[in-house]
Amino acid sequence: MNELELIEKAQLGDKKALSELVKNYEQTVYNFSFKICRDKDKAEHTMQETFMSMVKNIKQFSGKSKLSTWLYTVVSNHCLMLARSSRKHDYAASLDDDDVLIDEKSVADWSVTPDKVTENNELKIILDEAIQKLPADYRIVFLLRDVEGLSTEETGKIVELSIPAVKSRLHRARAFLRNELNQKLKYETA
Amino acid sequence: MKQHKTINCKEVMSHICDNLGEDLDSPRCVAIKSHLDECESCQTYFKSVDNTIQFYKKYNVKLSDEAHTRLIDYLGLNDE
């Protein structure tokens, strides 16, 4: 059964179809939630709330956008709400200054490659700490566009930003994260 | 670090953060690509931006069976 058929059955109250939709997307939603929150408990809570929203509102789903886009929107809004209620970091000021963000003298090879992520807990901590310094609205744009691979247009719709605004945030998020990782991962010369 | 007639490393690095090598057909982008081909410093910068994305792409977490069960219970879908 394809996704559209599952959605139609779910809209008629078919719990088996709803379960199937949840199973199809639970890993994606959990993983994306974790990538924003960097906390497994918060990610699980966000996943539960996202699917509860899907279950309650499936009858209103028109099919104009993809179900995945709709789920990304719910996760993003939920995480933004959590972030606004417990704002700990605010690096927005440094993100506005391209002279600080793009430092042509701060260039070095790195001591570790991306294929080592799964086996290296120290590296995971570095990645968690770096991305948590980014304001949540920049983090979400970076994750949707670069990590999840959505288009600029889809990302803009989800976060309700214009295409130039998405591009601007993406530019700053990439430069900021690169700088943070460069500080931690560059080869130290003796 | 290479100084190009019309473009410098800072501009190239800024462009890398904008486009990551996409849309390299306009005259300005051709100049950027030409600079990038010859400048080791900008190549290293490009690689570090690309690696930044790859690090976050490859860092995934798996949903446990217990968390799946809690989700299905929470949604009231455990009869199916």
Shape of chain B: elongated
CATH 4th-level superfamily of the largest domain in chain A = Winged helix-like DNA-binding domain superfamily/Winged helix DNA-binding domain
- Quaternary state of this entry equals heterodimer
Q: Please report the two chains with the greatest interface, counting residues with C-beta closer than 8 angstroms to the partner's C-beta.
A: A-B, 49 and 37 residues
Number of domains of chain A: 2
The termini of chain A sit apart by: 61 Å
Structural class of chain B: mainly alpha
* Unreliable stretches covering 5 or more consecutive residues of chain B: none
Largest sheet of chain B: none
Report Rg of chain B: 22 Å
Radius of gyration of chain A: 19 Å
At the third CATH level, what is the topology name of the largest domain in chain A? Answer: Arc Repressor Mutant, subunit A
Overall mean pLDDT of chain A stands at: 89
What average pLDDT do the residues of chain B reach? 85
Overall morphology of chain A: elongated
**Order of helical and strand elements of chain B:** HHHH
Q: Report the count of strand segments of chain B.
A: 0
Structure overview:
The complex is a heterodimer of chains A (190) and B (80). Chain A has 190 residues and is mainly α. Chain A has two domains: 3-85, RNA polymerase sigma factor, region 2, helix turn helix motif (Rna Polymerase Sigma Factor, Chain: A, Orthogonal Bundle); 92-185, Orthogonal Bundle (Arc Repressor Mutant, subunit A). Chain A is 69% helix and 0% strand. Chain A has ten helices and no strands. Chain A has helices spanning 3-11, 15-37, 40-57, 67-85, 92-95, 98-101, 121-132, 136-147, 152-159, 163-185. In chain A, helix 3 (40-57) packs across helix 4 and helix 8 runs antiparallel to helix 9 (152-159). The longest helix of chain A has 23 residues, at 15-37. Chain A is elongated. The model of chain A has no long low-confidence stretch (mean pLDDT 89). By secondary structure, chain B is mainly α. Chain B has one domain. Helices cover 66% and strands 0% of the residues of chain B. Chain B has helices at residues 9-19, 27-38, 40-58, 65-75. In chain B, helix 1 runs parallel beside helix 3. The longest helix of chain B is centred in the middle third of the chain and has 19 residues, at 40-58. The radius of gyration of chain B is 22 Å and the shape is elongated. Classes of the chains: A mainly alpha (190), B mainly alpha (80). The interface between A and B is large, with 49 and 37 residues.
